[in-house]
Amino acid sequence: MKLSALGRIALATGITVLATATLPGTPAAAAPVKRKMLPVLVEFSDASFQFPDKVKASTPDTYFGAKSDSAASYLSELSRGQYKLVPAVPEQFLGPIKLDLSAAGCPHGKINQMTRDELAKRGLVAGEDYDSISIVFPAQKTNCPWAGLATLPGPTTWINLYGTASGIDVVGHELGHNLGFGHQGRVKCTGGNLGACKSGGASHTTIMAGGYRPAGFSAPEMIRAGWLNGGASQKVTKSGVYTLRSLHGKGSGVRALDIALGGDRLVIEYRHAAGNFDAKLEGVHAYRVPKGSYGASSLIDTTTADKTATNNAPPNADAITKLTDKASKLSVAVVSSGGGQAKVKVALNGDSLASIDAAPTKSPSPSPSATPTPSASPSANTATEAESDGSEPVTELGSRELTAADDDSSTTMPLVAGGGAALLAAGLGFLLLKRRRGKHA
Ligand SMILES: [Zn+2]
């Protein structure tokens, strides 16, 4: 039986630990999910790290360092302390371990299996001693067409390392796949008519789709992870004016609206600089969530300009002002937006926007919305492992993900439902590395 520190103290002192009662409107103070991460450095029979000491020195920092863009800091800030990535072993990583395997042909399945066999030899048990592994290996001879690969969802990431350290743009992206997020698409719905949308590339509002580190995760992903529980995401079932605070950052308040859209969901967020996120992102954004799959959402883009992490478009280039969907008799209009707060008018059941009082008369009742499919702790069970090892990798490259205007791969990304796992590559990481290598060449 495993007891929390509080539980042990309680037992020792005879104090009864009461379950925290959730008062109406009080965000539930759930115990943080602790995820035991084991980075493992591996080498091949025919390829080793060029500077193993530098790789060994950088690895703890990349995953658990105090810097704000270590994987642990990143996920802790995004989850507002609800998700903790902790080292599975005191040394924080293992290796390099030499595998009796050639690097040729990017044998990711064998890399995973042989690494896990090595861990078993060392007495480390998946699901007990570690929840997730991140396998880091030298890229020079693998020919892997990606910088990172991950099970979706799941416990495994692969880092095809060119230099001496990986960065959050790759590691954070892969861990996002482990949390159940695909590559977020963008649909163009010019003029805000949701009945006439066409696929339009990547959202750029998340690290999962070209937003890089500063974008963090988008509202649908935050819901998928279970990080907007306790009233931070509000299910809208009545017409009215709703107030949103910034999606990221400390404090309380409603961070997302979650509205029925036929059989889909419409998620509304307000992005504004907060902590280490969204310095260049501003305004109210909307997403379509197909059939309740919050990990497979698409940004609804009503404008012609596109904001990306690297272009000069204004931060609010993809902010919505008005949406209409005749089929589900829904209208949305932004009443005000800026300075850290937005007010959004939602008209349901054919109500007219004009009939809704623009002054929010009362705070909408804060009924904490249940997260439909929270999988903050993707299980590391053997079934998932076996499936992920046997499945074909869904490898989409960054060039398509990021640049092709008519690319619909990011909106039709196959998400394997319910315990199954797929493999997704970090296309954007691939691009980054290509660029970085070009610079150094
Ligand atoms: Zn990816």
TrEMBL record:
Designated name of the protein: LPXTG cell wall anchor domain-containing protein
Keywords assigned: Membrane, Signal, Transmembrane, Transmembrane helix
Biased composition range(s): Low complexity: 372-385
Keyword Signal in record: yes
Domain Peptidase M11 gametolysin positions: 123-228
Pfam families documented for this protein: Peptidase_M11
Signal peptide (from-to): 1-30
Disordered: annotated segments: 357-415
Source organism of this protein record: Micromonospora parva
InterPro entries according to UniProt: Peptidase_M11
Membrane-spanning intervals of the chain: 413-433
Signal is among the record's keywords: yes
